[in-house]
Amino acid sequence: MKCRILSEIDGRMRVRLSLPRMSLKQADIVEEYLGAVAGVKSVKVFDRNRDVVVEYSDRAAVVSALSGFSFETCGITEPKPTGRELNREYQDKLAGVVMRRVLKKALLPAPWRAAICAAKCSRYFARGVKSLWHKRLDVAVLDATAITVSVLRGDTDTASSIMFMLKIGDILEEWTHKKSVDDLARTMSLNVDKVWVKLGDTEELKSISDVNVGDDIIVRMGSMIPLDGKLVSGSAAVNQSSMTGESMPVRKEVGSYVYGGTVVEEGECVIRVEKSLGSGRYDRIVHMIEDSEKLKSDTESQAYHLADRLVPYSLGATALTWLITRNPTKALAILMVDFSCALKLSMPIAVLSAMRESGANGISVKGGKFLEAIAKADTVVFDKTGTLTHASPEVADIITFGGHEQNEMLCLAACLEEHYPHSIANAVVNEAIRRGLNHDERHSKVEYVVAHGIHSTVDGQKVVLGSHHFVFEDEGCTVPDDERDKFASLPTQYSHLYLAISGSLAAVICIADPLRSEVRGVMDSLRALGLDKLVMMTGDSERTAAAVAKYAGVDEYYAEVLPEDKAAFIRAEHEKGRKVIMIGDGVNDSPALSEADAGIAISTGAAIAREIADITISSEDLFALVTLRSLSQELMARIHRNYRFIVSFNFSLIVLGVLGILPPTTSALLHNMSTLAIGLKSMTNLLPESEQNSVH
User: Fold this and answer.
1) Rounded to 10 degrees, what is the CA torsion of 125, 131, 135, 138?
2) What are phi and psi of 257, to 5 degrees?
3) Beta partners for 236?
4) What CATH number is attached to the domain comprising 47?
5) Three-class DSSP category at 575
6) 670 falls within a domain
7) Which among 141, 184, 180, 170 has a CA at the least distance from the CA of 344?
8) Residue after which a domain boundary falls, among 578, 605, 631
9) How would you list the strands of the sheet with 598-602, edge to edge?
10) Distance CA 76, CA 669 (A)
11) Distance between CA atoms of residues 263 and 275, nearest Å
């Protein structure tokens, strides 16, 4: 595509595309295309003037990509949503309101403006009457009273100013709310790329984009249901809290309908797809976010309810002032100033803006309630594997027993593990792929025991794969007598995955599971932010847990724990009056994530963990936790600052009005301007750019 470089400095280029006009969809396509080019750090597309601003580390790659770009051949027909259309809608709406206000003041004579004001006043009057009809004294009554009294006094300029400021405030609140919901909904995507499709008696792993309506897909325990459909075989207990709010899993039998985005907690089933990818999932997420009153923070809810509780006092003070002074101007000064508008505008906007900022840092938060919990927490519980360690462990060695061959055992382990993907399972499957090992599905039904392992039958022999406790204690498997010395000398620097066939140990898969390099720094930073109890809980051996705990610098650690042990620990902390954060990534972490005041899941972990968790971190850097804590604390500080400012400023306006220092028009103007200002301030980022988490 032809384009012209308008300006360029080191690492940054502004380009104008040779197009007669650019649609919003085209802008999204250009942004996605250039964003995927190696060496490009960031891309901003300005659709109105067709400009593209690119920050890069490789200029030649950018120039080549621009010169070779065309909408027909770029391969992007449906770009990922960016919220550009939503922003355009509200930018135009806001500009239209301001422009009409300016034109009316400049061009229309006073009688016409008065008539228009009286017509608009009727809407607010109707809202106030409706509230009174339902026996509510809320902000709608106060607004209606202030506007109506101004009109009756002939002060239509004041009434018009009040309505203008209320309109601006409504647009900004709606814009911020919808944008936050839109951003949040996009961050809560399913993250399911491939699914098992049943083809007769065989299974095939397919890209989810290749699955059509009518296809039969297999979903096993701990996995997310990616598409809507009906069960055609099997049964499952499905966690559908994201759709219905139900806390308990729902039993699904043949013929039952299931929804994409819900998670199979127990069992396995075959689902016949009835809705293709993208059908209605976003709308359900948006509905969930908008309707979940329980997701509001306690501080936000208190401020919101306080706003309504103050309305009768404002009305009472207005009446009392008039009775004492018989001065309608002084009485109106109280009516022109209310606490409700600012409180109801600034608090939700502050919370939603914080959720948006979290999303920009790779942190998906399901509600303000959980940001408040993060800010107030004093205890953090970490899972080890996939949380403190990298989410992509690797197979370091395969030690065989009983004369078995290395590749044969790896192939068998991968055949079982690929049905229940988690970090260790992925390591086994990836090693098989690296070695070029292909396998046929020779096993019978695979059964997964949470936090323990897998068992199945292959060629009539029982196969067991899992932890030491599961293989040797639960399943009663043994080590060949002539290889006990070999077993005793297993390398201690690795985690071990045990494979047994017909009750005898066949192989030990050694997993290299290195700690994240940033772990110690994260622990120190969290302590500096007021978290005084850092705990690690793992199903690993005491020896491994002790070594990891020492390196990580946690205050306490617990080894060889079961899922219920993690949840029990959190309950015990609650009984001590402590607020607890739980961070995990696996199926076995789900009970603890539910029990915690705020459960945080790593996005690369199990689907059920992401579903149950209140917060999901997509960043590979654990310093995202530090960002989250800082952001939550700053949010609470902003809410308290907003509250103090609103109360003190508006009380000052009332006092000055009653004393006759400020006329009602000035009081109304200052009140509405301060409401707008604090709303706009609440939309700004909480953290300076230097503290923002880089997410690419």
Assistant:
1) -100
2) -95, 140
3) 252, 267
4) 3.30.1370.10
5) helix
6) no
7) 170
8) 631
9) 363-365, 615-617, 598-602, 580-584, 379-383, 533-537, 556-558
10) 49
11) 17
Using CA atoms, how far apart are residues 602 and 354, in angstroms rounded to an integer? 20
DSSP state letters, 178-237: HHHHHHHHHHT-----EEEEEETTEEEEEEGGG--TT-EEEEETT-B--S-EEEEEEEEE
Pair 454, 383 in one domain: no
Beta-ladder partners of 258: 229
218: domain CATH number is 2.70.150.10
Residue 696 pLDDT class (50, 70, 90 cuts): very low
How many degrees, rounded to 5, is the angle at CA 642 between CA 598 and CA 139? 100
Give the dihedral of Cα atoms 360, 361, 362, 368; nearest 10 deg. Answer: -80
Which backbone phi and psi does 154 adopt, to 5 degrees?
85, 5
Can you read off the two tokens belonging to residue 236? 């499952």
Structure-token match 């919003």, residue found: 24
Residues facing 205 on adjacent strands:
196
Nearest to 496 by CA among 607, 604, 401: 401
Residues whose CB falls within 8 Å of the CB of residue 65, separated by 6 or more in sequence, listed in order: 33, 34, 37, 40
Per the listing, tokens 């106060």 go with 142
pLDDT, residue 319, reads: 84
Residue written as tokens 């997410």?
695
Q: How many domains does the chain have?
A: 4
* Tokens 């069992």, located at residue: 267
Q: Name which residue leads in pLDDT, 638 or 176.
A: 638
Residues forming beta bridges with residue 510, ordered by sequence position:
397, 496
CA–CA gap between residue 619 and residue 260 (Å, rounded) = 24
Tell me which DSSP letter residue 389 carries: B
In which domain, by residue range, is 38 found?
3-80
Whether pTM exceeds 0.90: no
Same domain for 501 and 416?
yes
pLDDT tens-digit readout, 224-281: 788 888 999 988 888 775 555 455 678 888 988 888 777 887 788 999 988 765 544 4
**What is the torsion angle, in degrees rounded to the nearest 10, for the CA atoms of residue 5, residue 7, residue 9 and residue 12?**
-60
**CATH code (residue 559):** 3.40.50.1000
H/E element, 474: none
Same domain, 461 and 527: no
84 burial class (0-12, 13-18, 19+ CB within 10 angstroms)?
A: middle
Task: Report residue 94 CA to chain centroid gap.
Answer: 28
